[in-house]
Prior knowledge:
By secondary structure, the chain is an alpha/beta fold. It has eleven helices and nine strands. It has helices at residues 8-26, 54-57, 72-76, 119-138, 160-165, 207-219, 231-240, 252-265, 306-323, 326-343, 359-371; strands at 2-4, 61-66, 79-87, 105-111, 169-174, 225-230, 247-250, 273-278, 282-286. It has a nine-stranded mixed sheet, with helices on both faces. Helix 6 (207-219) links the parallel strand 5 (169-174) and strand 6.
Amino acid sequence: MFPGDGTGEQTVPPCLELLALACEACGGVTLDCTVSPADSPAASPADWPTDCPIAARDSDAILLGSAGGAPRWRAALDLYASVRPVRGLPGVAGPLADPRAAALDILLVHGCGSTQDGHERLVGTAARLTLSRARDRARAVDPANATRRGGPRSDVAMSEDAYMAAPPRLTRIDEFDEFDEFDEFDGVDGVDRSDRVGTDHTSGESGSARFRRRFRQVTGEFELRTDASRIDTLAMNLVLRPWEYDVLVGEHRSGSTLAALGTALAGGPDYAPAADIGDRHALFRPGHGGAAEPARRVGIGRANPTALFLSAAMMLEWLGERHGCQPAREAGERLRRAIEDAFRDGELAIRERGGKAGTAEITAAVRAALIDGRAAAGGHRSIA
């Protein structure tokens, strides 16, 4: 764990306490955690050398308290998929008046921008997450999940009836019109498109066209519904009817743009967890990165730790999925539900929302929810 810059020194200690409580409540989970001191030269990824610290490279997961600066850690750890849950918290009002928005639950996956061509791994990750979410929804229909569905590259199993009751849906985010994909259109309007972003000058294929091609190739090996929408249309529909979407996948630029919109829809950056996923490592962090924290919160106990707490819950769930450790998955779910219960009655509000809650008050409320058993396991939703 790296406290990083900004408010990390305030939020990391209570986060470690809640992680320990959640793991203790589920049993069978022991985290071997190393904390880098806040004053360490490598405490913030902005200060990391090109080759990451050995403690980070040797870890399964990395948790950042608050970190800004250049994202050199993504390239050093080969992280290629940024996973951004867009999920509202009970008791935390979002900007949408429609009551259906209270159940907002979208997963947005986009490229990290650290690899030249990670489209296949990015889309594969999004497809597996889509099927995992469908599997978890289907548990209410058929807890046995006895029949394998999902395709040759999927390790997700569910019955036929459960699959049909909650079909998985993956939406591709397009940056350009579909005709940009076809070479025969190049030049017909007198415009040379060879300088388009990400263009392969050997084949003449644009980066967006390459992403669409990879999307079709990879998703063809999974049993899921797919569709596509331009980023401008998606931005409009995410405000008008976000409940119609399940998982969105896009390149770094388009995905990170919609992630910012999703953060606002879910209540703001104080409630936005994030993860950067690779084959070997995963890095979990507040979605706002730390730089967005108002300076007036630093050092006076007013930092909102909710985004870090939610990121820690994601980390436990991911570790459980990756290592086949059910108690870790349950611990992550238990922590997430404790956070939801802490905010549910609407009385726990930060100063920016008219309340008086700071780091200590939010931590105490989540701790109480963990201890009194209200956050019992159930209804798991996969995130990685």
